[in-house]
Amino acid sequence: YILPHRHLDPNKDETFVILRGAFGLVLFDDAAEVIEANDIAAGAGPLGLVRNASVVFEGDRIVSVAGAGQIADRRIDADGACVIPGFVDSHTHLVFAGDRGDEFAARMAGRPYEADGIRVSVAATRGATEAELLALAGGRRAEARRAGITTVEIKSGYGLDAHHEARCLRVARSFTGDTTFLGAHVVPAEFEGRTDDYVHHVCTDMLSAALPYARWIDAFCEVGAFDEHQSRAVLAAGRAAGLGLRLHANQLGHGPGVQLAVEMGCASADHCTYLSDDDIAALAGSDTVATFLPATDFSTRQPYPDARRVIDAGATVALATNCNPGSSYTTSMSFCIALAVRDMRMTPEEALSAATVGGASALRRGDVGRIAPGCRADLVVLEAPSYTHFVYRPGVPLIRSVIEAGSLT
Ligand code: NIG
User: Fold this and answer.
1) How far is the CA of 220 from the centre of ligand 1 (A)?
2) From the CA of 324, how far away is ligand 1's center (Å)?
3) 125, 174, 284, 302: which is deepest, by most CB within 10 A?
4) What pLDDT digit, counting tens, does each position of 85-122 carry?
5) DSSP type of residue 213
6) Beta carbon of 248 within 6 Å of any ligand 1 atom
7) 39 CA to middle of ligand 1, Å?
8) Which of 185, 221, 292 to mutate to test the pocket of ligand 1 (most atoms within 8 A of CB)?
9) Is residue 81 a contact partner of residue 60, using CB atoms and an 8 Å limit?
């Protein structure tokens, strides 16, 4: 989609994008829709939609969003297509070995999802070399990029001892600065029946080993994993060590997770599948983003959360893939958007916003998730005239090209 330079005819509708110099100045011209997403909670509508506009960027940064016909040395022809910000996937577990397809098949035959399955991935991950984990995670990161994801958060959580958690985070660090220490994912077999001892281990030796590679700390606050008290202890230890906070909350049933996330000032409460009115009010009155992971509810046969209630209450929401081997083995944000619109009562605009600027809010990032001057030049050209096609044409590959930090990938 990169065309050689040519002179513009001001009387003619031109349709292409331009790169200039070694580092590039790029312009999408005459895209059917160029989108600037605003925070849903900002109240001015979820998207700032610009038609027949150009995105000009230089190096890895967007310089301007301007009218059609901007001069630049090279152009990428958007050819009547829709251009969106790169997706911001704020919740993934990309570092793991092994496969749990049999567990998934059993679930489709009626078996419930149980947190215990995590131990299967822990055994496989501990048994892999660091080079193998790097290759496996790298393959998944590349798959996600092809799906339009230009920013990704990656959690540990399949090592569950100091050495293996640090190793998983080191691998994750080679793909993103948004790495999350999830030692409190589940109690490993060697600590069976000694959850408090394990929590102490997480808060001391494991945290020290993880610290050089982690930006965030997280815990799975759920029956069968860690209770409110244990989760609070993990978050407090992480905060004392200088990490940002996030929490797996209310995935498998109602519980204290969301309220705890708000109380502790977590950047994000993730899953939010079961929300009471009090949970929604707490989210709406806080800076904690409600991050929905609908591919998980799909893959575990859970009900879908009612995002409409959460948005209408005024909370900020995000959508993420939760790519992991147990509950959501997908890198498709398009699929998540389709589910969010079809089954969670979000509009296409809200779902796209949640998958871009909403994810950025969940990661406390102001530099990604929007097409705006100063933001990183992360752009996705769709094989469609509108983002509505994510839902209108479910399952169809609609990502034509991906530009990450100013480079066509
Ligand atoms: O976010 N819920 C906890 N962790 C993952 C699932 C991990 C697994 O089953 O392997 C999740 O869904």
Assistant:
1) 8
2) 7
3) 125
4) 999 999 999 999 999 999 999 999 999 998 889 999 99
5) G
6) yes
7) 28
8) 185
9) no
